[in-house]
């Protein structure tokens, strides 16, 4: 059984913090609309599908949030305001450079009664560069971060973000890099409490409605919309990407293979497809494929805006 997107929203209550997030979205987009700025919504990280209302167990989607968090930084460098919508505890712009124990390795502690913490000299330049960019983004109110965990939270927040972005029309980009679950358990079919472990449970999953359809046709019909297609079978990649374009009528699909996603992607448009890639040397030197992706998209978005103004 495939439910419609209207059914999904009707059967799943909005998250408790939705009203607060909607207010933040409204204020952020209004400010940048009035300033004439371009705004990009970057979705990032995976969604969970709870198996119980009082959730102990859930089905998860693989994603560390690398693509989204890195891309958000490059969009900021190009002057975009960024709404970064991400899975709690996945990677975030700027702080991604200092994850986990690596952060403590950058620091040194003076040995006296009034300890002073400083950055080790060999890391000072790197930390200063990242910190300067971070401060600039927030001082200019160019970065709004919103979180989700479950599929339902993601879909509610996505719709609200689209509604806030709609007035920007062709100055808005949707960069849908989150790994969204394809299957879910309807709310009325979930166990209230923890599923018993006395025997193997029988769980019936339903297909998640394809939100790209109302997003492109109803919510942000004038925006520049990019979706992602991740596959493990290279022979299916381009055909699946092109099928999505033909079905949902958005602007681009960024197609990638799981094993090579950090080194190569294929940009698929209605007209053609082409590869963006890093050499092994570039990869080893710390270059990021997201810089090539964002550079390409910024150029395409400028042409998109120009074509709409002419028409």
From TrEMBL:
The keyword Ligase applies. Catalyzes the second step in the biosynthesis of coenzyme A from vitamin B5, where cysteine is conjugated to 4'-phosphopantothenate to form 4-phosphopantothenoylcysteine. Has a preference for ATP over CTP as a cosubstrate. The keyword Transmembrane helix does not apply. InterPro entries: CoaB-like_sf, DNA/pantothenate-metab_flavo_C. This is Phosphopantothenate--cysteine ligase. The gene is LOC105431579. Its EC number is 6.3.2.51. Belongs to the PPC synthetase family. It comes from Pogonomyrmex barbatus (red harvester ant). GO terms for molecular function: phosphopantothenate--cysteine ligase activity. Residues 167-281 form the DNA/pantothenate metabolism flavoprotein C-terminal domain. The lineage of its organism: Eukaryota, Metazoa, Ecdysozoa, Arthropoda, Hexapoda. GO terms for biological process: coenzyme A biosynthetic process. Keywords: Ligase. It catalyses: (R)-4'-phosphopantothenate + L-cysteine + ATP = N-[(R)-4-phosphopantothenoyl]-L-cysteine + AMP + diphosphate + H(+); (R)-4'-phosphopantothenate + L-cysteine + CTP = N-[(R)-4-phosphopantothenoyl]-L-cysteine + CMP + diphosphate + H(+). It is an enzyme of class 6 (ligase).
């Amino acid at each position: 059984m495939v439910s419609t997107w209207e059914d999904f929203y009707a059967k799943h209550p909005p998250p408790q913090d939705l009203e607060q997030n909607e207010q933040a979205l409204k204020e952020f987009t209004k400010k940048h609309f009035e300033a004439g700025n371009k705004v990009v919504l970057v979705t990032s990280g995976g969604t969970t599908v709870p198996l119980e209302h009082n959730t102990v167990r859930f089905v998860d989607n693989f994603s560390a949030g690398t693509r989204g968090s890195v891309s958000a930084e490059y969009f900021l460098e190009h002057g975009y305001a960024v709404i970064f919508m991400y899975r709690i505890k996945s990677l975030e712009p700027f702080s991604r450079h200092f994850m986990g124990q690596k952060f403590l390795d950058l620091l040194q502690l003076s040995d006296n009664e009034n300890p002073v913490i400083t950055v080790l000299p060999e890391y000072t330049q790197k930390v200063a560069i990242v910190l300067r960019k971070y401060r600039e983004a927030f001082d200019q109110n160019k970065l709004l971060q919103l979180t989700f965990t479950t599929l339902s939270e993601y879909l509610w927040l996505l719709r609200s973000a689209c509604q806030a972005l709609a007035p920007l029309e062709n100055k808005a980009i949707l960069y849908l890099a989150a790994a969204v679950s394809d299957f879910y358990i309807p709310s009325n079919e979930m166990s209230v409490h923890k599923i018993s472990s006395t025997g193997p449970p029988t769980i019936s999953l339903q297909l998640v409605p394809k939100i790209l359809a109302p997003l492109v046709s109803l919510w942000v019909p004038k925006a520049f919309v990019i979706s992602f297609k991740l596959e493990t079978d290279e022979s299916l990649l381009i055909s699946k990407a092109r099928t999505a374009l033909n079905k949902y009528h958005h602007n681009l699909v960024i197609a990638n293979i799981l094993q090579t996603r950090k080194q190569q992607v294929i940009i698929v448009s209605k007209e053609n497809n082409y590869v963006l890639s890093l050499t092994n040397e570039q990869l080893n030197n710390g270059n990021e494929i997201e810089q090539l992706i964002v550079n390409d998209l910024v150029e395409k978005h400028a042409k998109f805006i120009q074509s709409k103004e002419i028409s």
